[in-house]
Amino acid sequence: MDIENTEWFDSDCEEFEKYNSFPATIKDIQDFYKAKKAYLLSPNIDTSSMMKTKFQMAHSGLKAECSCHTISPHKLQELTELLKRGL
């Protein structure tokens, strides 16, 4: 993976916006991608911890979207895999 070329972050983030998610979920996902980028550019204990915390928040938001029937369980699985991409 080309860590210097992180343009795919934006396209991945845009994928989540297609589902009319709650604004808080979108913010959590955007925060996760910022933490993910920081970790990939400078892997250390601080960026790792932040990325893990932000992942849990983003994933919890996606699970809430599934519970509210905004997304299907299958879509939840797909979007979770997208969150994990590149790690």
Provide the structure class: mainly alpha
Largest sheet data: none
- Contiguous low-pLDDT stretches (5 residues minimum) are none
Tell me the number of strands: 0
Gyration radius, to the nearest Å? 13 Å
> Which whole number gives the mean pLDDT?
86
Q: Helical segment tally?
A: 4
- The best one-word shape is globular
Termini gap = 10 Å
Oligomer: single chain
Classify the beta-strand content into a percent band. under 5%
> How are helices and strands ordered from N to C?
HHHH
Helix content: over 70%
Q: Your description of this structure?
A:
The chain is mostly helical. It is 75% helix and 0% strand. The chain is built from 4 helices and no strands. It starts with 6 loop residues before the first helix and ends with a helix.
Task: Characterize this entry briefly.
This protein has 87 residues and is mainly alpha-helical.
What distinguishing features does this structure have?
87 residues; mainly alpha; 4 helices; 75% helix; globular
